[in-house]
Amino acid sequence: YLLPEILKAYMRSYPDVSLSVQVAPSRYLVDDLLMNRSEFAVISLPFEHERIETVSIYRDSMPLVVGAAHVFAPRVKVTLQEVVQEPLMLFHADSVSRKIVDERFAEAGVSPGVVMEMRSPEAMRKLVEVGVGISFLPMLAVQESLDAGVLKVVDVDGVSFSREIGVAWRRGRYFGFGIRYLLEAIFEVYGGLGVWQKKVGSL
User: Fold this and answer.
1) Residue 107, class by beta-carbon neighbours within 10 Å (0-12 exposed, 13-18 middle, 19+ buried)?
2) Whole-number Å distance between alpha carbons of 173 and 166
3) Contact in structure between 29 and 22 (CB atoms under 8 Å)
4) Which residues contact 59 (CB under 8 A, 6 or more apart)?
5) How many angstroms separate the CA atoms of 45 and 195, rounded?
6) Helix (H) or strand (E) holding 64
7) Residue 7's CB: how many other CB atoms inside 10 A?
8) 14-24 burial string, b = 16+ CB within 10 Å, else e?
9) Which residues pair with 117 in a beta bridge?
10) What is the mean pLDDT of the chain?
11) What is the DSSP string of 104-171?
C-alpha cells in the first residue's frame, strides 16, 4: 500500500534491476532478514530484536469497518460492548495489530464472542464487505472500499486504534547503491531519512 509509486519510479531509474517483493506477516519478513534472504522489510512496529534495526515511517489508523448493509452502518458511534456481540474478523494472535486490539479489549474487560482469525487484510476486507462480520482494519487496506461505498467506518466510543509501520533491516547489513537509492526514496517520502542514515552510517 505504501510503496507502489516509489517502486514505479525506482524501476524507471533502474530498468535492469530485478526486484522480488514478498507480502507476509511481519514475523516471517523478519525471519527472512535474519536469514539474509531479504535486504529490508516494511513491518508493523514495535518489533524488538537484538539483530534488527527499525525506523518508523507511517502511522495508520485502524477504524472499525462494517459492510454497507450492516446494522451499524447508519450509526455514527457504537460501544465496545456492542462490537464484541458481533462476529469479528481479527488478525492472528501473533500479529502486532491483533495485540493492539486484544490489549484494549482486556483493559475494557470485554471479550469478543465469535472470532474468525486471518492473516490477510484483503481477505478480511472482502468478508466484511459481504457481511460475514466486522473488523478493525488498517485504513490503508480499506480506503478504496470506503470510497466505493461498500464499507463504512463507525466510531467506537472511547476507543481508537492505530498501528505504526516501519522499515526493518538486519543490523550491520551492507546496502549496495541500488538498494540505498530505494531506501532513501522511501524515507524521503515518509520521513526518517536522517534517522536511517545515522543508524547505517557508511555501511
Assistant:
1) exposed
2) 17
3) yes
4) 162, 163, 164, 165
5) 16
6) strand 64-67
7) 15
8) eeeeeeeeeee
9) 90
10) 92
11) HHHHHT---SSEEEES-HHHHHHHHHTTS-EEE--HHHHHHHHHHTSEEEEEETTB--EEEEEEEEET
* pLDDT tens digits, one per residue of 126-163: 999 999 999 999 999 999 999 999 999 999 999 999 99
Phi-psi bin for 197: left (phi > 0), alpha (psi -120 to 50), beta? alpha
Q: How far apart are CA 84 and CA 152, in angstroms?
A: 18
Paired with 157 in beta bridges are none
Distance (Å, rounded) from C-alpha 136 to C-alpha 115?
A: 12
- As a whole number of angstroms, the distance between CA 110 and CA 119 comes to 23
Candidates 140, 139, 95, 141; CA nearest to 118 is 95
Q: Name residue 30's amino acid.
A: V
CA distance 198 to 65: 39
Q: What is the pLDDT of residue 202?
A: 53
CA distances from 122 to 114, 135, 138, 166 (A): 20, 12, 10, 20
